[in-house]
Amino acid sequence: MLTIFMEEEDKEDNRIERFVKNKQVKKIFNDVFDKATLDTIFSLARKKYFDEVEFVIATGKEGNVFRCKSGDNYYALKIYKIETSDFKHMMDYIAGDDRFKDVQKNKFNIIEAWTKKEFRNLEEFTKAKIRVPLPIAFKRNCLVMEFIGEDGEAAKRAKYAPFRNMQEKYELMCDYMARMVARKVVHADLSEYNILNNNEEMVIIDVGQGVSTIHPKAGEFFERDIRNLAKWFSKYGVETNYEKMYADIKAKK
Ligand SMILES: Nc1ncnc2c1ncn2[C@@H]1O[C@H](COP(=O)(O)OP(=O)(O)OP(=O)(O)O)[C@@H](O)[C@H]1O
Ligand SMILES: [Mg+2]
Description:
Transferase(Phosphotransferase), domain 1
């Protein structure tokens, strides 16, 4: 047991060298991530989900998203930061969710439940035929999913790359939202910031805060999602507003 443990420890210094070539990623690995997070990343690497963490796609207050490579395939690796995440905010979204009723209120458990929730929501959305990144694996605070992009270049957020045919995407979004309701999930942070334009394919991301429709605030979150989207679509000439979009979603059911 001790020998195995020593071997793992010995490998710690060179595992960053082995799986990371990019200087910026190395710096994040050395300066930002705690040991438990590094252990988690490298255990996913050992399981062959990826063989290199290549570069940062996005850094945020609560997490970082990296492009990873496994052979010729790319994946997106989302890592929630344990120290800086807003736990009180997260607890609000976990609290009313039946699937996570046993989560103890400590930082680590909350982050772990959050990651699992994002993974499960990706599964739910995929089953409901709502286009999201395909979930691949998760462990503790790390999530591996399909990389959304072309020729290795990450797709842009719809906020900065609106679709050519916004009317068509509006109809599709109403359809997706009706499917969410039918599946009893609310995204709860839908806006042009969490939609990717993948060469005119609309992909919804960032589903960690998604709640079940029995969550006490599900109605409020659903209304907020519709308001955000109706405002954005109408900016691009789609004739809609909150009331119209609500009715259009209902009509899809
Ligand atoms: N599967 C993916 N493929 C390609 N890019 C992705 C993927 N997932 C996330 N991204 C990129 O990473 C960014 C952050 O991801 P996400 O929104 O899931 O995380 P977040 O921590 O909630 O960030 P934010 O606070 O900015 O919303 C996205 O805006 C997108 O540009
Ligand atoms: Mg986001």
